[in-house]
Each structure stands twice: as structure tokens, then as C-alpha cells.
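Good morning N.,

You mentioned wanting to compare the apo and holo forms, so I went ahead and generated the holo version with nicotinamide-adenine-dinucleotide. This is what I fed in:
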Amino acid sequence: MTLKLGVIGAGAIGQDHIRRCMQTLSGSRITAVNDINPDNAGSAVARYAADARIFDDPHALIRSDDVDAVIVTSWGATHEAFVLATIAAGKPVFCEKPLATTAEACRRIVEAEMKHGRRLVQVGFMRPYDAGYRALKATLDSGRIGEPLMLHCAHRNPRVGKNYTTDMAITDTLIHELHVLRWMLDDDYVSAQVLYPRKSGKALEHLRDPQIVLLETARGTRIDVEIFVNCQYGYDVQCEVIGELGIARLPEPSAVPLRSEAARSEAILMDWKERFIGAYDVELQDFIDGVRAGVLRGPDAWSGYCAAVAADACVAAQTSGAVTPISLPAAPAFYR
Ligand code: NAI
Ligand code: NAD
Ligand code: ISE
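and this is what came out, ligand included:
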């Protein structure tokens, strides 16, 4: 049976997910689209899903008999309400990151899912599906570089728009590192601190950019993450792990080594859609297959909550400048 999917939020990633479900993946089709901006819903349907119905009301989309599962790709602040409504309808939901913008809101989703009694939520943290991160984790797990002692990471975007605020460096950007590093190290964060280097002249007036986030884990591993969202030159994600016996790095995406005009060079990608295209394909196929098989295996609501607990501490640390403790309750049996 082909899975009928409804999408709420037909912006950048919503349209990209609609395209991938209709043109690349198997086992699903897009039957319904809603967007607070009707032009976005209209253009998504015209470009990729001519047979899909445009809903004016997202809650009618969630309830529709023509929708078996929902993809939430609207702005982060709207995620909680749509995920809770989809759980209340007893339908599976793929929610783009962040699961919600605060830990308290994520906790409400966790409680609702546990009350329902069966997993319905997958969070769009795609990095654990990325071949490079998987290879890096496999290297750490093999013991070849010994225990991880320090990590140096960077998350750089060429530029961001005027709606991007200083706290979004945490809730929208760093949230990927908060999720993937916890998964990769199999460790929990215990503290966070945020430092502001000299501000880039390319950043808009209201935005502190770049930022450095310092994290400490329960086993004592120290992590620094540079967030620099107006770096101009490319979309660049870096991760280097310093171990007791050696160093392991996240592989660069493959690019043609070029000799031209008296220079050796390799192109750097500019767009996050291209950088993680394979990971987005695999994560969404995993969701579709999981819903059809009745077993979701991808990043769960609890891991969305854990990332949000750490994010809350980082946001507090942005204003206090202090080393801020992070403490997580033990995972409920439902998520173990
Ligand atoms: P966008 O601004 O391009 O698109 C958001 C769309 O949602 C817009 O069309 C907007 O009109 C619509 N929308 C907003 N509020 C709505 C509401 N209440 N009801 C219905 N529609 C509503 O933003 P973008 O870049 O597509 O991001 C959307 C979400 O996806 C965010 O949560 C973002 O963090 C996440 N994202 C995840 C990525 C990843 O790598 N996993 C990459 C890019 C975005
Ligand atoms: P896994 O199957 O043990 O998955 C662990 C899951 O629990 C992840 O969803 C993760 O978010 C969460 N989790 C558990 N411990 C965590 C921690 N300490 N920090 C943060 N999150 C934690 O591990 P895996 O096999 O390496 O897979 C990782 C993810 O990638 C899974 O979601 C898996 O479904 C997915 N994956 C799927 C495919 C595929 O082909 N379908 C391929 C690669 C990865
Ligand atoms: C965007 O929302 C994403 O999730 C991208 O993966 C990320 O790199 C970018 O910084 C965010 O704005």
C-alpha cells in the first residue's frame, strides 16, 4: 500500500522533501499540502505533486482520510502544535528539527507519545544517516584512536536572512551538533558555555556571529563548536576527534580535484540541501519504510528532547556568559 503523506510547511526543506518523496523515494506519495503562505503550497504542488490537495487548515490536513502520516516542515516555533495534533489523531509524524524550540515543549510531545503507547514521532536529524558521520562513528567504536578526549567542530553557512536571530545559532544550527555528537560519542552533556569572538562585519546588526560553544560530557570529553553563519565562502561542516591514540576527521564531501589557471582546487558546496542530500534521502525512506512496517527506527522524540535540554542551557549561557550545567533525567523505558 502506498503511504499517503500530508506536508505542513512548503518552504525550502518542505519543497525538497515533497520532491524527494515524489521523484526519488519509493512507497509514498504526497496527497496533501498546507502552508500559512498559500503561494508556497501552490508552487510546491505545481512543481512536484500535481494531484495533491491544498488544505487551508493544517488541522483538517492532519485529520484527512487521505493522509496516513504527516511531515512537519514549517518554522520551528510551530512544530509542537502540529506534532501534538498528529499524535492525537494517532498518525505517525516526521518532524523537521528542532522537535520544538524548548525542552518543555519537547517534553509535552514525549508525554503525549508515551500516553499514546506506541512510537509515532521521527525527528529530522539526518546526520546519523550521513555516510561520513557513520564512518567517523564506526572509527571511534573500533577503538583505533582510543578514547575521545577533545572534539573541534564547525558549522558554517555562507549567510543567513534578517529573521535569523542570535538564539537561532543554538536552536536552529547547533541543534544538529547537539544531536549528532551525543549519538556519536554515546555520552551526555554536563555543561555548556558560549563565547563571542570579534563580530564579523558581514553579520547583520542584530546578530552575534560567529559564536563558540564549549561543551563538556559526562566522561569529560571537551567539545568546541564554531558557529559561523555568515562565513561567505561555503556551507561547511567540520568535525575532528582527538583520541588517545590518534585523530579522526569527518570526511569532506567528494569533489573533483581540479588543476586549472595555475591553481589546484576543490569546490566547496554552498547549499545544505546538496551537502546532506544522501542523508535526507535515507532518513525519509527509513521513515516511510518504518511507518509501512509499523516500526519507527530513526531519531526519536526523546533524542529531540535531549538536544533541546542542551540547547536551553546554551541559550541561557549566551546571555549569562557562565558555564551552565546541563542535566538530563534517565530515558523512560519506552525510549530505551
Ligand atoms: P522556510 O521559511 O523556507 O519554510 C517554512 C514554511 O513553513 C514557509 O513556507 C512558511 O510559510 C510555512 N509555515 C510557517 N508557519 C506555518 C504555519 N503555522 N502553518 C503552515 N505553514 C507554515 O524554512 P525552511 O528552511 O524550509 O525550514 C523549515 C523547518 O525545517 C525548520 O524547522 C528548519 O529548522 C528545518 N530545516 C531542517 C533542515 C535539516 O537539515 N534537517 C534544513 C532546513 C530546514
Ligand atoms: P541505533 O539503531 O542504535 O539508533 C539509535 C537511535 O536512538 C537514534 O535514532 C538516536 O537518535 C537515538 N539515540 C540513541 N542513543 C542516543 C544518544 N546517545 N544520543 C542521541 N541519540 C541517541 O544506531 P544506528 O544503527 O547507528 O543508527 C543511527 C540512526 O541512523 C538510526 O536512527 C538509524 O535508524 C539510522 N540509519 C538508518 C539507515 C537505513 O539505511 N535505514 C542507515 C543508517 C542509519
Ligand atoms: C538549517 O535550518 C539546517 O537545518 C541546516 O542543516 C543547517 O546547517 C542550517 O544552519 C540551518 O539554518
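Residues 128-129, 179, 182-183, 186, 282, 286, 297-300, 303 surround nicotinamide-adenine-dinucleotide (ligand 2) (CB under 6 Å).

Happy to go through it together on a call whenever suits you.

Best,
F.
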